[in-house]
Amino acid sequence: MVRNVVLIRVIGTMTEFKQIIGRGTRLREDYDKFYFNILDYTGTATRHFADPEFDGDPEFVSEEEIDDDGNATTTTIVDPGPETTDGEDTDDDDEVIVDPEPPILVDPPEVNEAPRKYYVEKGKVSIATHLTLDVGPDGKQLRATEFRDYTGEVVRSLFVDVADLRHGWTDPDRRAEILRALEGEGINVAEAGEAFGNPDADPFDLLCHIAWNAPVLTRKERAVRLRRKTPTFFDAFGEQARLILDTLLEKYAEHGPSEFAIPDSLKVPPLSEIGNVAEIIRCFGGADELRAAVAKLQELLYAA
Question: What is the number of structural domains in the chain?
Answer without folding.
Answer: 3
